[in-house]
């Protein structure tokens, strides 16, 4: 693992039955960069995210986040190491308010346990107050602060994506995984989201994203890795990827060139 | 923000408890107070079950087993071994928590229907244990001569004393549930209910929290069991069978699963309703069933949702008045 990488994926494989979803994949995500994973449907992009977050076990290979081996760690332990993600279909807690959703994202920064909860201790109250303040800031960052007390289930599709973003940011992630954050958004919403992602990067959060919108990927990313049938077929800057003959053949076609 | 959120969150609970405390002064007769003692026990049971099912979204079809375990431990220790009731209550809570831990560790790895099936099985097992250990439990005919609760030299032996004693415990249980609902842990439980996967990815140790809340829920049931056995001075295994697990679940759902007041409303109404329906002899079961169906058809979120929508409407009206 090179010194500048926050995440290193080393020879990772995953199979479902006889199908290799991810095959001997290696790449690194440099600290402070925005890196994109692209590829046709079924290329293994979402599986890769599930492997990194620990929702699926690896077949073989190694995952290292900021010097810590992730293999065998449950998703909640990985989150505690500073790994946050959003989902292709937003996984919002619809039974809670918008602010409460973000507060769950702040969970790992709290200490109050069962007895503090039952007794409503002064310490847990103070902790909660600090958390709330921080979470309101996160909502302001994505522009949802005025909806803080609304039921999360009442939000529109674009707002759900923003809420998921705020919730992931509340965790103070070192690495943020964004799974198709622009899917289903209007042009304007996508632009808004892109500026948020740039803002996050400027604050020092590394971003790894999966996306189908090529305009977005080419504009936003510092580096791109291209998957096809679970294998890496290209990696480089957006300019390099757009010139790569193999990538053009299997994925980009003539659309970009 | 609407008007109701300006009130402290414990304000409605204080009003409720004040009404409970004042009620014996206007109670029509001792029999009614006696029934309200049972209401208190069911409120405690349902509040505990609601923490598990409503807050954390984990289904239990064997909750009566923990109620029974609490009752039998407390009953056997006092009736057969002459333990002081307070110590027996502590022992029944600790014992039930240990059993809940042992049951919860394997079953809470299961999800949805599988968890429901596993807890159902646990309920059946405990019911037969209560019957089979006849030497201690009295077998199918039950355990008799359980002493009333006593704290030091004060014996809780009259209806009115029992009423206050039981409701004091209910007050503690309700306050705990209210605090829990607003806490970091309560939010984590709610998140597990909303999306297990998302909660886990945000750093919530979902399995650990499920086990903790399963144990807490069992502790509520154990206290209710201990109160119950010293209240009626008798205990029989059929009280803790599958049908009563379903009854508890029905109370929670009819009242409003996941809401703080839901179990209070559900337990109160479904305990009092059969008393009133007794006047319609022969039709009582039919009426009881029809009322349940009607509530579920017209208020699928339970009776508590009625108050919530009312509160919202008032809030919206005030906001409109303020804005205009």
What is the percentage of strand-forming residues of chain A?
15-25%
Structurally, how many domains make up the residues of chain B?
Answer: 1
The coarse overall form of chain B would be globular
Number of strands of chain B: 2
Q: What oligomeric state is this?
A: heterodimer
Query: Helicity range of the residues of chain B?
Result: over 70%
Helical segment count of chain A: 10
Radius of gyration of chain A: 19 Å
Total strand segments of chain A: 10
Largest sheet of chain B: 2 strands, antiparallel
Q: Give the class of chain B from helix and strand content and strand pairing.
A: mainly alpha
The profile of the biggest β sheet of chain A is: 6 strands, mixed
Helix content of chain A: 25-40%
Features:
heterodimer, A: 257 residues, alpha/beta, 10 helices, globular, B: 324 residues, mainly alpha, two-stranded antiparallel ribbon, 14 helices, 2 strands, 73% helix
Task: Indicate the topology.
The complex is a heterodimer of chains A (257) and B (324).
Chain A: E1 5-16, E2 19-30, E3 34-38, H1 45-53, E4 60-65, E5 68-69, H2 75-80, E6 83-85, H3 98-105, H4 114-119, H5 122-142, H6 157-170, E7 175-179, H7 187-202, E8 206-210, H8 214-220, E9 223-228, E10 231-236, H9 238-243, H10 245-252
Helix pairs in contact in A: 3-6, 5-6
Chain B: H1 11-22, H2 30-55, H3 63-79, H4 85-107, H5 112-132, H6 134-137, E1 149-151, E2 154-156, H7 159-181, H8 184-194, H9 196-201, H10 206-232, H11 242-255, H12 262-277, H13 284-298, H14 304-323
Antiparallel strand pairs in B: 1-2
Helix pairs in contact in B: 1-7, 2-7, 2-10, 2-11, 2-12, 3-4, 3-5, 3-10, 4-10, 7-10, 8-10, 11-12
């Amino acid at each position: 693992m090179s010194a500048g990488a926050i995440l290193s994926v080393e020879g990772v494989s995953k199979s479902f039955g006889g199908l290799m979803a991810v095959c001997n994949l290696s790449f690194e995500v440099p600290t402070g960069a925005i890196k994109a994973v692209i590829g046709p449907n079924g290329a293994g992009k979402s599986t890769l995210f599930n492997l990194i977050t620990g929702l699926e076990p690896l077949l073989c290979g190694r995952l290292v986040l900021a010097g810590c081996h992730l293999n065998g760690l449950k998703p909640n332990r990985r989150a505690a190491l500073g790994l946050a993600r959003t989902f292709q279909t937003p996984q919002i807690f619809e039974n809670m308010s918008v602010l409460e959703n973000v507060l769950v994202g702040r969970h790992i920064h709290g200490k109050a346990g069962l007895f503090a909860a039952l007794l409503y201790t002064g310490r847990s109250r103070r902790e909660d107050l600090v958390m709330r303040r921080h979470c309101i800031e996160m909502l302001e960052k994505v522009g949802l602060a005025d909806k803080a007390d609304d039921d999360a289930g009442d939000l529109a599709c674009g707002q759900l994506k923003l809420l998921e973003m705020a919730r992931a940011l509340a965790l103070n992630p070192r690495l943020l995984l964004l799974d198709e954050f622009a899917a289903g958004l209007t042009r304007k919403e996508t632009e808004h989201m892109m500026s948020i992602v740039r803002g996050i990067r400027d604050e020092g959060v590394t971003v790894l994203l999966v996306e189908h919108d090529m305009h977005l990927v080419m504009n936003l990313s510092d580096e791109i890795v291209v998957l096809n049938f679970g294998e890496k077929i290209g990696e480089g800057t957006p300019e390099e990827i757009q010139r790569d003959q193999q990538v053009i053949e299997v994925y980009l076609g003539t659309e970009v060139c | 923000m609407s008007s109701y959120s300006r009130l402290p969150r414990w304000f409605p609970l204080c009003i409720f408890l004040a009404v409970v405390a004042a009620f014996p002064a206007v109670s029509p007769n001792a029999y009614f107070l006696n029934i309200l003692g049972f209401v208190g026990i069911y409120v405690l049971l349902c509040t505990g079950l609601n923490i598990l099912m409503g807050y954390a979204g984990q289904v239990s079809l064997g909750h009566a087993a923990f109620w029974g375990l609490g009752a039998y431990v407390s009953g056997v220790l006092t009736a057969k071994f002459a333990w002081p009731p307070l110590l027996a209550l502590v022992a029944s809570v600790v014992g039930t928590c240990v059993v809940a831990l042992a049951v919860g560790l394997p079953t809470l790895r299961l999800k949805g229907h599988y968890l429901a099936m596993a807890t159902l099985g646990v309920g059946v097992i405990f019911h037969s244990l209560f019957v089979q250990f006849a030497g201690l439990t009295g077998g199918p005919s039950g355990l008799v001569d359980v002493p009333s609760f006593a704290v030091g030299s004060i014996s809780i032996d009259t209806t009115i004393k029992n009423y206050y004693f039981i409701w004091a415990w209910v007050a503690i249980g309700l306050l705990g549930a209210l605090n829990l609902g607003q806490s970091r842990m309560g939010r984590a439980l709610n998140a597990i209910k909303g999306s297990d996967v998302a909660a886990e990815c945000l750093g919530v140790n979902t399995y650990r929290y499920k086990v903790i809340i399963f144990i807490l829920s069992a502790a509520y049931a154990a206290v209710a069991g201990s109160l119950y056995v010293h209240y009626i001075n008798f205990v029989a295994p059929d009280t803790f069978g599958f049908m009563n697990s379903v009854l508890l679940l029905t109370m929670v759902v009819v009242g409003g699963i996941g809401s703080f007041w839901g179990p209070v409303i559900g337990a109160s109404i479904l305990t009092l309703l059969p008393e009133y329906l007794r006047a319609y002899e022969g039709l009582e079961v039919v009426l009881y069933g029809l009322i349940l169906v009607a509530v579920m058809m017209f208020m699928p979120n339970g009776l508590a949702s009625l108050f919530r929508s009312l509160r919202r409407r008032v809030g919206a009206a005030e906001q409109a008045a303020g804005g205009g």
